[in-house]
Amino acid sequence: MDLRNIMVRSPNWIGDFVLSIPALKGLESLFPHAKLTVVAHRRVKDIAQMVEGVDRVVVFDKEGADRSIKNLIRFSRGISEEPIDLSVIFPLSFSSALMGYFSGARRRLGYSTEMRGFLLTDKIRLPLEYRERHLSQTYTNLVAKLGVSDELSTPELNVPEVCEKADRIMESLGYGENRKVVGMAPHATFGPAKRWPMENYSSLAKNLLKRYNCSIVLFGSADDSTLNLEDTSLPDGVVDLCGKLTLTEAAYLLKRCVCLVSNDTGIAHVAAGVGTPVVSIFGSTSPEWTSPIGNKNVVVYEKVECSPCFDRVCRFGHYGCLQNVGTDVVLDAVEEVLR
User: Fold this and answer.
1) Cα–Cα distance measured from residue 13 to residue 186, given in angstroms and rounded to the nearest whole number
2) pTM for this prediction
3) Which of 56, 62, 295, 322 is the most exposed place for a label (fewest CB within 10 A)?
4) SS3 of 256, please?
């Protein structure tokens, strides 16, 4: 199969994008001489540029200039000046398949969801139980139709060798003077059914500061900078960097952390992608589906009768899957990865 120009419509969320990297690497390995273009949501642009083998990243403004059907068609036709031999469509939406169609790609590979099969030349049925296997496997199974290995591998992100702003932050935290830096990501854009209570993170931070010669950094977006912090006092030694870092800077800092404690959110996958051990706390979602990949990672999950429900807000109001996770359990998990 002689392919010279491949376009991949990537997942829109940071964590999902990281979990698609093994499939991207498989494409690059199978077609080493092809130009690999990734069409990415603006929120994942920085991460896409850290993937070895990706030749070009084109930003798609899904909620802005490219939102209407007319502008989607215009954008799709302008993705590449050269003919596209293959378009691989990871998202399950109708509009993503429409992009592949109007890009002019000769072959268009994707799952036949949302009645979009007629837009695809190569289509695969999505199993009803797809949330019972890892999301990364769903992506690799798609490209396996082309001959790519469907063996699950660890996603890898290549961070810059130098980042002056991040280096200044690490220096202020005492990094390099036998002082550990522990990351925490206590937020989740998805909703409260993914968020371990902020007071628990505060208690965990106090325990870690007592037991280790460490500093603690909070990671998150600008929208997270005030979320759940108003009524929670954070101990001295905790530095809140939510909304103060680019994704590239965050990845650089995460690589230098000894571990990250996180809800089921995108930054956990970034940490795993740069090789930092992750303790991930799951609530309404399933670790079978979206846990970070890597041998050093630990999942904390207290399954209750109604989980996983995948709801943004607990329909019963008790948030038992999160409330049942004790600080001592998470502390034990952190100590496990630090041994």
Assistant:
1) 17
2) 0.93
3) 295
4) coil
Alpha helices (runs of H) in the chain, residue ranges in sequence order:
14-30, 45-48, 69-77, 94-102, 135-143, 164-172, 198-211, 247-255, 266-273, 287-290, 320-323, 327-338
User: Picking from 1-5, 22-26, 295-299, which range would have the lowest pLDDT averaged per residue?
Assistant: 1-5
The Cα 110–Cα 91 span in angstroms is: 8
What local confidence, expressed as pLDDT, does residue 150 receive?
A: 83
Measure the CA dihedral 103/105/107/108, to 10°.
-10
121, 107 contact by CB (below 8 A): yes
Residue-level pLDDT at 320: 95
DSSP-assigned beta bridge partners for residue 89: 9, 110
Report yes or no: 289 and 264 within 8 Å, Cβ to Cβ.
no
Cβ(259)–Cβ(338) below 8 Å: yes
Listed residue (297, 339, 333, 323) closest to 207, CA to CA: 333
Q: For residues 204 and 108, what is the distance between their CA atoms, to the nearest angstrom?
A: 48
Domains along the sequence of the chain with CATH = 5-146 (3.40.50.2000), 164-338 (3.40.50.2000)
pLDDT tens-digit series, residues 313-327: 999 999 999 999 999
In sequence order, the 6+-apart residues with CB closer than 8 A to the CB of 293 are 19, 134, 136, 152, 153, 154, 155, 269, 272
Contact of 135 with 106, CB cutoff 8 Å: no
Q: Six-digit token pair at 204?
A: 């965990």
**Which pLDDT does position 202 carry in this prediction?**
93
Residue 2 burial (10 A CB sphere; 0-12, 13-18, 19+): exposed
Contacts of 70 (CB under 8 A, 6+ apart): none
DSSP-assigned letter for residue 34: S
Q: What are the C-alpha distances in Å from 124 to residues 108, 127, 142, 144, 252?
A: 11, 9, 7, 11, 37
Q: Which amino acid is at 205?
A: A
> Whose structure tokens read 């293959």?
86
Cα separation, 201 vs 65, whole angstroms: 38
